[in-house]
Amino acid sequence: MTTSPTTPPRPAGPPALPVDPHLAVETDGTLAGLLCAYAETYKRSALPASVGLIGEPASGALFGDVLRVETEAAIAGRVERGLERLVPGLVGRIHRAVLGERPGIEVAALRLADAVRAEGAAAADDWTFEPAREVAQWSGRVGREAHRMEAFVRFERYVADDAETWVATARPEYHVLPILHGHFSTRYPTLAWRIVDARRGLALVHTPAPERAEGEPATRIVPAVTLGLGDEAPDEAAYQRMWRAYFQAVTIPERRNLALHLRHVPKRYWPYLTEKQPPGGVRLDAGVG
Amino acid sequence: MRRQVIEKLEILADAAKYDASCASSGGKRENTPTGIGNSTGAGICHSYTEDGRCVSLLKVLFSNVCIYDCAYCVSRRSNDEVTRVAFTVDEVVELTMGFYKRNYIEGLFLSSGIFKDADTTTEKLVAVARKLREDHGFNGYIHLKVIPGASPELLTEAGRLADRLSVNVEIPSEAGLKEVAPEKDYNQVFGPMGHVRDGIAEAKEERRKNRRAPRFAAGGQSTQLVIGATPETDRQILELSDGLYSEQKLRRVYYSGFVPLGGDDRVPDPETYRAPLHREHRLYQADWLLRKYGFALDEVAPPGSGNLDSEVDPKTSYALRFPYLFPVDVNAAPLEWLQRVPGLGIRSAKRIVAARRRGVVRWEDLRAMGVVLKRAQFFLTTPDHRPQLLDRSPDAVRQRIVGGKGDGAPQLSLFAPAPVRLATPASGTAPAPPIARAA
Q1: Is residue B169 a contact partner of residue B255, using CB atoms and an 8 Å limit?
Q2: CB contact A141 to B (< 8 Å)
């Protein structure tokens, strides 16, 4: 950016910006893109009424301007640091909320960011302020789904040419792959594993350190169709049987409470849970969606 | 060999399932670049049993051979109905690693019947933990059960390897314990518990001086109390818990509603087990108030009060006993007071305080903040909500809460379901369990 850099946001700065009902912005759909959109709209002294994807027809502002935002890491970084200084954790909260893929959530995020800039940190946790509540609630929903994935993902061992791969398939409600890598990379740093999101046709793929090229990240998200599988490992079926046997054995029949069980493990997770497969071990959904 | 392991697994998991603890939280073990697993943060429930309990750890006995004859325990010596088996150290290690890599579990919770003596048994448990940590680079969660009477040296080693240690008190009074577990006494339980407590305190102190000093059971110590196998009241049980938290520095006390196992007439028979399940739920609520909400024991369960109110949760019961303390002004009361309002949790109380900084909190804001209005409506005020009923008649408030869908139904089903397979009707008032008959 050649013009003067955006002034770092400060509490009690200029008052919160109005939403311009005719302004629509387009970004690349990433968190960095959204942060850049904030820098861009701040320069124009108005927040957009809609945030869309570059190349996709905008819905909200047929009669107004469409502002195309180029993502620049330096700008995104500056906005992120400014927001984090005001409210630690706010950018993560916005990131999770946006991954909920809810129409309009980006506008709420921009309004929240702007309110925090204008009025200080207290705006971020004020649930009577709608954007703050919406972002917090969606962040909560996506965070819960991610936590459920950390719990319910089941790896199966595959072997091809003496190399083993641990493969899990899931169907998360929200786009949680981008926030799962940290948990699984720390937990299984030496294993080659992948988590397939069958709903979105994407996979989070982890490569253990010795097999990575210099500078290559530990995980990346790729289209699931490009991945091949080896053969199921010889001991895989036995472990699945043992897990099912264990699951049956720990239930106390006198205390059975299916309503409670379903609250904790809603049926939509069952097709991918080893313990919910029939004893023969045939998966209800073996493919990659 | 597999076939054999799967059969042992079924038997030894079945025998371990009455231990309520399955927590994998409180650990502080980070992974190494070449290791496997970690146990930091809040813990993860990887599945839930059909009775709705969390499955976080591979919870098994090493062996169900036991020289003791405790009436409440399925593995008791005199029970002829169970097949006696034992794992080998390698079998438990292999199962743990295989399950962990598949993301079935957070780690291992290993306990055992006392097949020879306390030390021989504990040695096996320690051997499993050592092999996992040292040979497999396993940094997941390990919870070891301390066998009453184990030697201090073994406990020290167990504490170094495990994230959590527990020794179960089981029966909430020593007299009750003698009645149903003739070989046990409180010394055997509190001796090791005290040793573990001191080990944890020492290791913390060492780590303050030196970041590299080894940890000792960083996830803390817990215990379990069996509810309804012996005649102690809720007040007596909570008194014990309160002491365990303050003196033994326990992280958690678990309550396990007694499920009769049949065939031993020192403990109540199958028709009476609904009451323990119901009490278990209320005891957990009360325990939570003691640990997290800043309530004192006497506020939750007044001296000599017998059992907790079975109709309403302990916080509502408290509010109805002290109606003159309510209603509380949402826009003025300190956080500690908001948390004492029935229907408000720690989170919703914090949200109210945060929103207050910028403006006035009104009635319609509360629902979005997660306040359970059904209950809270009688106990708080906003500029547009001024309840009168509590002043006029606390009993009417109770009727409204018990009769409505406010508390009873949904909350109750969370922990203490009406079990499906029983002919006897549920008793609404949870009478004290019958006195255990002497054998």
Answers
A1: no
A2: no
> Which residues on A lie below 8 Å from B102 (Cβ)?
154-157, 166, 239, 243, 274
Nearest Cα residue in chain A from B359? A128
Retrieve residue B141's tokens: 């969660």
Any idea what DSSP says for residue B307? S
Domain boundaries, chain B: 2-300, 323-395
- Predicted confidence (pLDDT) per residue in B188-212, tens digit: 889 999 999 999 999 999 999 988 8
Say if residues B77 and B60 touch (Cβ distance below 8 Å): no
* Distance between CA atoms of residues A106 and A87, nearest Å: 18
At residue B250 the predicted structure's pLDDT band, cuts being 50, 70 and 90, is: very high
Domain termination residue (choose one: A111, A145, A179): A145
Could you tell me the CA-to-CA distances from B12 to A41, B83, B113, B234, B262 in Å, in that order?
Answer: 63, 10, 10, 31, 19
- Closest by CA to B427, choosing from B272, B314, B280, B308, is B272
Whether residues A223 and A188 share a domain: the answer is yes
**B16 neighbourhood in chain A, CB within 8 Å:** 250
Same domain, A271 and A176: yes
Question: Cα-atom radius of gyration of chain B, to the nearest Å?
Answer: 23
* CA B189/CA B169 separation, integer angstroms: 6
CATH number at B2-300:
3.20.20.70
Helix (H), strand (E), coil (C) string for chain A: CCCCCCCCCCCCCCCCCCEEEEEEEEECCCHHHHHHHHHHHHHHCCEEEEEEECCCCCCCCCCCEEEECCCCHHHHHHHHHHHHHHCCCHHHHHHHHHHCCCCCHHHHHHHHHHHHHHHCHHHHHCCCCHHHHHHHHHHHHHHHHHHHHHHHCCCEEEEECCEEEEEEEECCCCCCHHHCHHHHHHHCCCCCEEEEECCCCEEEEECCHHHCCCCCCCEEEEEHHHCCCCEECCCHHHHHHHHHHHHHHCCCHHHCCHHHHHHHCCHHHHHHCHHHCCCCCCCCCCCCC
Q: Which 40-59 residues of chain A touch chain B by CB within 8 A?
A: none
Q: Which domain holds residue A257?
A: 153-276
- Determine, yes or no, domain membership for A208: yes
User: Count of residues for chain A?
Assistant: 289
One domain for residues A162 and A69: no
Mean per-residue pLDDT, B152-158: 93
CB contact under 8 A, B9 and A253: no
Task: For chain A, report the end-to-end CA distance as a whole number of angstroms.
Answer: 42
Give the tens place of pLDDT for each residue, A16-62.
899 988 889 999 999 999 999 999 999 999 999 999 988 776 555 55
Is the same domain home to A157 and A139?
Answer: no
A120, A145, A170 - which closes a domain: A145
A133 and A78, same structural domain? yes
